[in-house]
Amino acid sequence: MQTRHIFDTKKRDDSNLKQHDGATMIENSPSKSSYTKLPDLLLRFLFVILGMGTLFAYNAFISCTDYYNSLHPLVKNISGQMVTYQLSSMFVMTLCLLPFSTINISNVPDYMYHQDYATHPTITTRGSTRRWTIVFGRILELLDIYSPARRVLYGFIFTFLFLCVYILLPPSYITSKTLNVFSIFVGIADATSQSGLYILAASYSDKPVFTASATLGGALSGLIVSLLRLATRGLNDANTLEGLQRGADLLMRLAFGFSTVLIGAILIIMRDIQRRNDVKEQYMHVGDMSSGEYSIASRSATPQIERGGLSLEMVHDAPLESNVPSLVSSDDDEARNISNITTLYHAYRDTLRLVWKPALSAFLNFFITLSLFPGVLVDIPISKARFSIGNWLPIVLITVFNLSDCLGRYILSFESKRPFQMLMTRQLATSNDQKQGYMSLKYYRYLVWFPTWTRGIFFPLFAICILPSEDQPVFDSDVLRCLIVFLFGLSNGFIQCANFTVAPTLVESEEMKNAVSLLLLLAIYCGLSFGAYFGLLVEKIIRSMT
Q1: How far is CA 139 from CA 103, 116, 409, 500, in A?
Q2: What does pTM read for this prediction?
Q3: Predicted confidence band at 25 (pLDDT cuts at 50, 70, 90)?
Q4: Which helix (H) or strand (E) holds 359?
């Protein structure tokens, strides 16, 4: 339903206008029937799908390490190399995207978006630096990289493209160097999509249900890919290189098809965001104070959730001439750039004071996980005991890890369940002791903080699954090994989901929520990257002892 606005300065129809608390209201205001929001259940499902997509290609490559090891038997620890390249590129890409994920776009110098190059008075004195600044600004305007939803879309499009290239490559081109290059592309795509997904999920609702859905999707991707790899491996002769190749190619084609589903899912989310903002903007103009669901009390209460910047507001009372390019002095530009840097510094500093413990927990959790998975895990030798899985052991262990990781995140997916309620329980604050940040959580240290440190016990447990020799390790039972890996994955999933669920609730402002999501991602990528490199050292030490 379209709203008709009447701006007749000579003659107004008093029957169509009302005065309410100093605000002009139009009787034929937009009704709620003009737009039906997507149900929360559907949104949660879509965020699960998007969470799966951020790690689907990564898990697909990792699950095919049996084929890559057979294809390049002389290359040691090819899976560890791939993971190292992937996670390193994710970490670097996250650092590059950090300013675009939290910068206040309203403070970006006008010449970077609207100022014509020929009319800017300081261009001739700045030389090529200013020219490239303007070009870069116009590229940012075209791509709208500040939008979390756009970053998710670009990440999935990039995944779609490089999977297409991988499928079209002949098998002779799948060398170890080629795999490392594709691993870098996987990391760039994953970092781009994840840098926007968790900000987008946190912005949709004050409750952390969508963030929990996204983290659950990340675990489901590993489980589903592992099950698909078991199926594609079973459909072909796993004892021959050709059979392994057909199974791996089929899995990659399935991943390519799923990437098209991901693009469709994020487009649905973007359309819903746009329609929500259109309704808000209509009510902002109309000033309908009678609607409790869509009415807007002030501009500060209406951030555009499709952008991830600090204090982004929909400004409606600015004059029309404000969009006309204006001449900006270099001093003003420099002052504004310094203001942006200062704003970013204070935002991250204040946020880190409140959530440093969840951030450190996220770092340690993934540092321990990547130190052992998948490099050390796939090196566990085939058991010679009675109940042996045989050469299926690496795939089965990866599947067990992904299953338990998914279960650990699933535990916190329901607000009505006791684990979620215990995690979110706040301490009763007295008038003289107002606890803030992680200190306000009553059970966080018992549910998340202490278990994070106790995960270090998995280092000796994994070691004795291989030592003292591959022929006779201490733990030679595949059932016992699967149990250890199950607990390893369960603790990883629970701690990761707990940190992502609770951290955004520890801050109030929109800019600090954005900073929380990026700090957690940065902590995770640091843990993943350093853990992957440390895992290469751990594996080398264990091999030297066998």
Answers
A1: 16, 14, 38, 32
A2: 0.68
A3: very low
A4: helix 330-372
